[in-house]
């Protein structure tokens, strides 16, 4: 049986950054041994993906960041563009493979952290801690005894919720023959795409040079599309809206992010905790996760080093979650037109303030000021009916599987 003070299950954004924080030099009284368990290559290991987040000035992962910007653009459904300056914030693009290489380089000099490829099958509480059971790449059984477990694996099913939408997308990494992109501006939401029967759709462009960009087609709706439907939408968007001309698709990515007012359990036992999206780090109204993961992980690392029970703090304030629940209900019922709603916010609220609002970094007065630009009557109606809306399991037929 293997042993470690801390076991981290999953080597995504949450697991890797938590391992890095727990092993950082510190004068704290506790210096834990850490075992990071990553799934062997295969269906349990997620493919490379892109994370975006914003922060003020330089950040700890800047050397791994692909690109960053201080201007964001939103195209409304009529085609009218709004460009917002977000200084002193920067909007940053981080590829998962670059982040993993970044973390591996730093962990190489920290012997307190070990990494193993294990398909984890069970995490169970035992006296004084927890036990993690699984199999290695060769099929041999693995058992690990530990004081604390931080599990970032997606739950088998989403918790019951009053409203759950899926943010699902497919992206092309494109290279064009002519200079087709402005490397200084992110196309955050481009609503010049056909509106789906339910929910909203938009284009998203992260330019990394005049000839290169990640171009995505994204929907907020109840069910994912087929691969053919995403591809058709991307072809139409790049040809008819962006007018890229001759171009090459050099890579693709796709994903599904639940946007839900469901309460996520942050602990499943006295010594077992959920982290990352599995622990509720995803902002329900936007799908952004990375920055909240970092906040939670800093608190976890501080608690472990201080010898306290490291229950992750809530990723988002109660006020933020309440506002998101109202917005999700308003979008899902069709009372609020999503394209008009987000376009109006970016037109009327300074972009830097709006990003701080979306990250939960604004106070009550600023929240109320932003709320004044929302359609008041539909939002009030949605807020009034929420207490009477029962929480239901997410339908299995529309489960958040990866797009084909």
UniProtKB/TrEMBL annotation:
InterPro entries in the cross-refs:
FAD/NAD-bd_sf
What Pfam families does its record include?
Answer: Lycopene_cycl
Protein name per Swiss-Prot or TrEMBL: Lycopene cyclase family protein
Organism of provenance: Streptomyces griseoaurantiacus
Q: What is the lineage of its organism?
A: Bacteria, Bacillati, Actinomycetota, Actinomycetes, Kitasatosporales
């Amino acid at each position: 049986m293997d042993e470690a003070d801390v076991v981290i299950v999953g080597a995504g954004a949450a697991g890797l950054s938590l391992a890095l924080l727990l092993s950082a030099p510190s004068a704290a009284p506790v210096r834990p041994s850490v075992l990071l368990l990553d799934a062997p290559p295969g269906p349990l290991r997620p493919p490379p993906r892109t994370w975006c987040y914003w922060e003020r000035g330089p950040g700890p992962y800047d050397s791994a960041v692909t690109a960053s910007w201080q201007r964001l653009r939103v195209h409304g459904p009529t085609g009218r563009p709004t460009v917002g300056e977000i200084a002193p914030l920067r909007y940053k693009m981080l590829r998962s493979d670059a982040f993993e290489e970044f973390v591996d380089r730093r962990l190489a000099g920290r012997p307190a952290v070990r990494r193993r490829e294990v398909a984890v099958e069970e995490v169970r509480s035992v006296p004084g801690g927890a036990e993690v059971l699984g199999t290695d790449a060769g099929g041999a059984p693995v058992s690990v005894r530990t004081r604390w477990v931080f599990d970032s694996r997606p739950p088998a099913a989403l918790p019951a919720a009053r409203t759950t939408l899926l943010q699902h997308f497919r992206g092309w990494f494109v290279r064009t023959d002519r200079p087709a992109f402005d490397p200084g501006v992110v196309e955050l939401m481009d609503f010049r795409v056909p509106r789906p029967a339910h929910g909203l759709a938009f284009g998203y462009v992260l330019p990394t040079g005049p000839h290169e960009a990640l171009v995505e087609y994204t929907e907020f709706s109840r069910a994912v599309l087929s691969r053919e439907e995403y591809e058709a939408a991307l072809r139409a968007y790049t040809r008819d809206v962006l007018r890229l001309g001759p171009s090459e698709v050099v890579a693709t990515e796709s994903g599904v992010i639940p946007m839900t007012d469901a309460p996520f359990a942050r602990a499943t036992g006295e010594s077992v905790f959920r982290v990352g999206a599995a622990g509720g780090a995803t902002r329900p109204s936007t799908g952004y996760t990375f920055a909240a993961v970092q906040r939670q992980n800093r608190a976890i690392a501080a608690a472990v080093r201080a010898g306290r029970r490291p229950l992750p703090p809530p990723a988002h304030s109660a006020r933020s979650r309440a506002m998101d629940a109202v917005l999700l209900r308003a979008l899902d019922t069709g009372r609020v037109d999503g394209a008009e709603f987000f376009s109006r916010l970016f037109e009327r609220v300074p972009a830097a303030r709006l990003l701080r609002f979306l990250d939960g970094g604004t106070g009550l007065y600023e929240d109320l000021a932003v709320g004044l630009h929302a359609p008041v009557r539909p939002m009030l109606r949605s807020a009034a009916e929420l207490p009477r809306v029962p929480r239901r399991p997410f339908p299995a037929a529309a489960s958040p599987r990866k797009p084909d």
